Amino acid sequence: MVAKFPVEVAADERCPYTSGLTHGECCRPFLISERAAPTARALMRSRFTAFAIGDASYLRETWHADTRPDRIDLDPSMRWYRLDIESASGGTPFERTGEVVFTAHYRVDGTRGTLHERSRFVRDAGRWYYVDGDVHST
């Protein structure tokens, strides 16, 4: 069965990021623009959640204007189910740039796969944005 995007996640449900927190305590405040992600790591987590629930508009909003694609087409048959952040450098509220290395786990048509990426972020006008990344999929 293919999910319809975007998937609604209630504030009291577990966050798709798999933090163990509710969505309202974790990524939801960023996705509904209640507040901006305070760090590059927090933005990475919320962007993973956006991929998991199919929120292409949030992905575009948090992609830096210099590298943002014209459109983002998400595959509703791809189910993102776990994010492992392996390292982060910079990306604090007091820095202008940051880098997050992660592995995202997904399933598509019953087959598991991973996407490993070294993502670069920049803080512009007090907000963090995804710039680009070096990707390796398996």
Automatic annotation (TrEMBL):
<feature type="domain" description="YchJ-like middle NTF2-like">
    <location>
        <begin position="39"/>
        <end position="133"/>
    </location>
</feature>
<protein>
    <recommendedName>
        <fullName>YchJ-like middle NTF2-like domain-containing protein</fullName>
    </recommendedName>
</protein>
<dbReference type="InterPro" id="IPR032710">
    <property type="entry name" value="NTF2-like_dom_sf"/>
</dbReference>
<dbReference type="InterPro" id="IPR048469">
    <property type="entry name" value="YchJ-like_M"/>
</dbReference>
<dbReference type="Pfam" id="PF17775">
    <property type="entry name" value="YchJ_M-like"/>
</dbReference>
